[in-house]
Each structure stands twice: as structure tokens, then as C-alpha cells.
Amino acid sequence: MAMAGPRVTVLMPVYNGERYLREAIESILGQTFSGFELLIINDGSTDRSVEIVNSYTDPRIRLVNNDENLGIVATLNKGLKLAEGKYLARMDCDDVSLPTRLEKQVEFMDSHPQVGISGTWIKMVGTREARIWAPPETHEKIVCTLLFTPALAHPSVIIRKSVLDINSLKYDPSFEHAEDYDLWLRSSHFTRLANLAEVHLLYRIHPDQIGERYFEEQQSLAKSIRLFQLAELGVNPSSEELKVHREISLRRMRADKQFVEQAEGWLHGLKEANRQTLLYPEPDFSRILAGFWLSVCQAGSGFGLWMLVKFLRSSLGRNRGVSFGEKLALIVRCCVRGNG
User: How far is CA 104 from CA 5, 109, 124, 225, 246, in A?
Assistant: First the structure.
């Protein structure tokens, strides 16, 4: 009788990752779910990465060496072809998967056959203050959030490989460094997306990571992805409006009254455009807009009563997208900072 293959392929590209690679590998080998292969593709490393991988004797590790440095997108697409699992879980060589990550994700995918790609919440580490990124859970909210950000943490995702195969989906080389954002958007037209509302990955922030080294290139590509979606929404932004949209998307809110006015007008415009096109599901779209509006107001809380009145009068926050607790916290913040 033929041996059954792995249920999950954990795909880990490696390029000069010796500093954190051992910790990343051991976080996968220590998973409570054992039915996986760890497919490590060495993309022409010149450090001790291959030596570190070869120091392990676990038969679940499969090392493949590129003849030359192909780049992240070509390496990922090579991994999609080589993967033997029903599910494909992404993993970066500088992150840490918590012990029950695969167990919880496989359970979720098995019980939600309509979902093709799902991620998890992640905890940012490596900075002075660790923080949690908690992207939305449901497909509807994720699709709405894609207008602003990728909405799934790439190294946390698990993908139903059949969805990629049936729909000829893979990473697009023209979007290298924003390849995940592009893939989630295209995939959303064929399958449902989801996030587990639990932290299952420690995402390491450090100067050598791709997001840091290629930030401007990444944001240039993200701009084109956002522009495509805005065009579908029937919105043709000015350069200033596009700048405001980028700042809102990155949650880099400026604490000045002009920005608050611009942001409110822009978010209102998106809501009106969606009312006419019905492109995004409601009330989810309004709730996502409300969350961004709250962030704008939090940044402007130093303006005290002016900011509080503007928040309370705006229709952007008048729905369940902003909880009573969040509203109360903003009121207190405006009163304290406004009197400081």
C-alpha cells in the first residue's frame, strides 16, 4: 500500500537567513500537528543557511537548492509546484510559528471547505514594544479592507492548494515585494478568505527583512493595487487624495486639522461611491471605514473638544464599526489631551 503524503506543505524560502533560521525551523518541527513536510528552498544563500538546514535529520524536512538567486516570487512559485500537501502553509525564515498553529489552521480549513486562504493574527516582535496585528476575520470584511491593506499576514497563511491549481493562481513576478497583496485580491474573486482571531505567529521586525529593505518599492506596487480597486469603485483620486488614502492605509495619521478634514471627506466619498456601485458588501464596508475614521480621530485627539465634536457629528462613526468602549476611550482621550 502506498504511503500517504503530507497533509500540509510548509513552504519556507531562505536567502541568507542564518541569523534566525534555526529558531524558525524548530518552531515548525515543534508543532502539535505532525502531518507536514517542511519544504525549504534555498535561494542562492552565501551564508551558513544550508549548513544549518543540513544539521537536522528530521525526515519531514525537504531542502531544495536554486542554482542561482531567483528572488522571492520565483522561489515561491517553484514551491507551489513542488508542494505535495493538500494545504500549503507559508513560513518565513525569520519568524516563529507558535506550537498549535498548524493544528488550529488545519482544523479550521477542514471545517470550512468554502475557504481557500486563511491567516491568523500575528504578534510583532523585535521592537521595543511588541504589538498585535489583528486583521478582520470574515471574508466580507477582508475584501473591504483590501482596498487599504493586504488584510492577511503572508507568513501566517494556509492555502488550499486545489484552489490555486483549479484557478491557475500563483504569485505575479510584476508585483515582487507586494506579491501577497496582489494574490489575495485576485484570489478573492474565486474563493473565500478568512483569519483566525488568535495569535499563531511571531512576526520579527528587523532592518534586513524584505518589508524594511524594499519599503518604497513595496508601497509603489501597493499604490497600483489600491488604484485598481478605486477605479472599480468609480473613484479617480487626485494626487493629494491618493496621499491621504495611503496615510490612512498605513495608519500614519497626521495630527493636524487639515488632515482630519481631508480624511473625513475622503472616507465619506468612498462610502458614497460604494452606495452607487454596490461593489463592497454593507454594512461591512461602512464598519471598516468607521475603524479607519476612529484611528484618524485618535491621532487628532490633542485638538480636544474640536476633535470630539467632529467625531460625534460625523456619520462615519455612527454604526457598529466603532464600539461603545472605543467611543468612550476617545472621549476620555480628547478630554485629557485637549486639556494638557
Answer: 20, 9, 20, 31, 34
Report yes or no on whether pTM surpasses 0.85: yes
Q: Which helix (H) or strand (E) holds 12?
A: strand 8-14
3-state secondary structure of 72: helix
In whole angstroms, how far apart are CA 32 and each of 26, 28, 104? Answer: 12, 9, 9
Q: φ, ψ for residue 36 (rounded to 5)?
A: -135, 165
Angstrom distances, CA of residue 101 to CA of 62, 68, 172, 177: 20, 32, 27, 25
| Cell (9 digits) for 121 | 493574527
Domains of the chain: 8-213 (3.90.550.10), 234-338 (no CATH)
CA dihedral 138, 140, 141, 143 (to 10 degrees): 120
Q: How far apart are CA 270 and CA 334, in angstroms?
A: 26
Chunked into runs of 10 residues, the chain (340 residues) has average pLDDT values of 78 96 98 98 97 98 97 97 98 97 98 98 85 96 98 98 98 96 98 98 81 79 97 97 96 92 97 97 96 94 93 85 87 79
Give whole-number Cα distances, 312 to 217, 295, 296, in Å. Answer: 38, 14, 13
